[in-house]
Design a protein that fits this description.
246 residues, alpha/beta, two-stranded antiparallel sheet, 2 domains
Length: 246
């Protein structure tokens, strides 16, 4: 559990992830009943709804939380690992449980995350010689965007900016800074806007961009491209590919 999120794990026979969410996606509305999306999911829907009912009874007298919402039902996927695909020894440094779990699913060693970016980068320095790929996740920018708190989001960005010199002092072959999605404070939620992307390596051709922002990156030399191209670009700039492309 972390902040307002938790994970419910169901184990048993004949379970199905084909369920609708209970989250109404709007404050002040009652949770929705979890509906099966296929006949095979009826048993799992009954279990999930019973869990919600019991949680409601146990939480109703608590001041901080009076209900649970369930969404994103799934089962553990069979995902090829980063060591298998890219022949790397990867590690993840993240404070948020969801990203630690995702990192483990793709074959990363999950290292201690700490409570903030300073502790994360301290852990990076301690483990830098033992791995050749690091995923460092900074949650605060997304969280403050979802809060709709523009000033706090600016402060989170500045916190990351101030910590980057410690990462740069390690002189990585490739450094990438980007996000998994846009979370504008004006919308207080995820949005469809493209995210800025920066790649630093010895082999980059310079462009005229001198700041890191959505507007500035639109004029960058890499243009706009799908996120599936990030790892090949990183591998190429680290000279870890025999050949790039066909």
């Amino acid at each position: 559990m972390k902040e307002h999120r938790f994970v419910l794990i169901l184990r048993g026979k004949a379970l199905s992830p084909e369920l609708g969410d209970s989250d109404p996606q709007q404050a002040g509305l009652a949770p929705k009943k979890i509906e099966p999306l296929s006949p095979q999911a009826q048993k799992t829907a009954r279990i999930a709804n019973e869990f919600v009912s019991q949680a409601r009874n146990r939480l109703r007298h608590l001041p901080a939380a009076n209900m649970v919402l369930l969404r994103g039902f799934s089962r553990r996927p069979d995902i090829p690992s980063i060591p298998e695909i890219y022949k790397l020894k990867p590690a993840a440094i993240a404070t948020y449980p969801m990203y630690r779990g995702l990192a483990r699913l793709v074959g990363m060693k999950v290292l201690p995350g700490g409570e903030g970016i300073t502790e994360q980068l301290d852990n990076l320095r301690r483990n830098y010689a033992d791995y050749d790929f690091f995923f460092i996740h900074f949650k605060s920018t997304d969280a403050r965007g979802e809060d709709g708190n523009f000033r706090a989001k600016v402060q989170a960005i500045e916190e990351l900016d101030n910590a980057l010199h410690g990462l740069l002092s390690l002189d990585p072959d490739v450094l990438i800074v980007t996000g998994d999605h846009s979370t504008p404070a004006t919308l207080a939620g995820h949005s469809w806007h493209p995210v800025p992307f920066m790649l630093k390596s010895r082999w980059c051709r310079p462009d005229n961009v001198v700041e890191f922002s959505e507007q500035a990156c639109l004029a960058g030399g890499m243009g706009r491209f799908p996120a599936t191209e990030i790892m090949p670009l990183a591998m190429a700039n680290a000279l870890k590919l025999d050949k790039f492309g066909a």
